[in-house]
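[Q] Does anyone have a clean structure-token version of this?
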Amino acid sequence: MPAIKKIGIITSGGDCGGLNAVIKGAAKKAHSLGIEAVIIPNGYAGLYNLIDMDKLVTLTPERVGLIDATAAGSEAGNSRVKIRKIADDKKYERIKNGLKKFKIDGLIISGGDDTGSVVVDLLSQGIPCVHVPKTMDLDLQSYSVGGDSAINRIAAYVRDLKTTGLSHNRIMVIEVFGRYTGHTVFCGGVAAEADCILLPEIPVDFDVLYEDIKRRFFPRIEKSDTKRGIYTIVVAEGIKTASGELLYDEGAGVDAFGHKKLAGAAKYVKQQIEKRLKNDPEVEKLMTRAGMYVQGIYEIPEVREVIPGHLVRSGNSSAYDVNFGYKAGAGAVILLLEGKSGNTVVNVIADKIYYQQTAEVIKRREVNIKEAAFLEGLGICFGRKPEGFKYELAEIKGQIERRFS
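[A] Here you go.
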């Protein structure tokens, strides 16, 4: 492999916490090794259009100092572009000419499964590149920068919404990102002490959910001296209906990677709960006893849907993601120098840089629902009849080397 004298840094796919730490980590490590680092702006769109650019930002120590590693988002910019789908027979030649124009010898690319699939594609075309795992969905085989930041923000929003929900005796349904896996919903919901967490991995039985609402929400109101109560549900955008169908936004089309855009999970959950509240004769009795019932106006408790949307991937990065981003970005530079193109930085621990083939890392990892069974024993509802938790004890002997799951 030719000597690496200049690297290009790309952030692709969705923005999230920790990306600026990746950029800074890679740039600082490159500088310490006498390698020039530049930003290729706007993700894979920028890579494709590199040939038409007049200049790139060089990440000198002074320029790197202007980047706030704690800020979410990316100084390099993002886009959702699948190179293989570009209708240009000479797209790879165009990309190579752009890299040649700026004398870029290799790429550090941070992104999720879609971004990683393009890393594999670029490698097959002879373009050296190393992948830094990034997705707030946490659905890669390794830890991915952005996940912890999203979990913390989800937990904060759910906790904050309890104050308004409690003031109005509401059932609050909060829908958050996660697509086909429920890692962020699972962890964020637990951290916020949500009553119910609905995951793509567990089909929802709304009769079971409603029974849990009656078992917990109704007594909260009646036992309160001021007749106040709340029930919180955190739902992943990718939950399935009773028939197993995902809830798509039919008018939104698909993204650049062919994924239908998900929408409507919170609304669907709300409708299912309202339907059961209206058909339950016990509800009018509850409302009457609590001094809430007003015929024709206020006959059932309010069910409110809240969608924080892009707020969960914005703002500030968690300390965890800044730490991981710094290490992973720097580790990616070393992998590139060692000729380990087509690999993903899994972690850097002490004097070891852990890596794995990107093609393996981007295989989807779902929530282990055995953990849901464990938490059901602690009172959290997952929209199903609780399953007994069967456990085994596993003793670890010797020193434990920390790894991210």
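[Q] Thanks! Anything notable?
[A] The CA atoms of residues 344 and 356 lie 5 Å apart.
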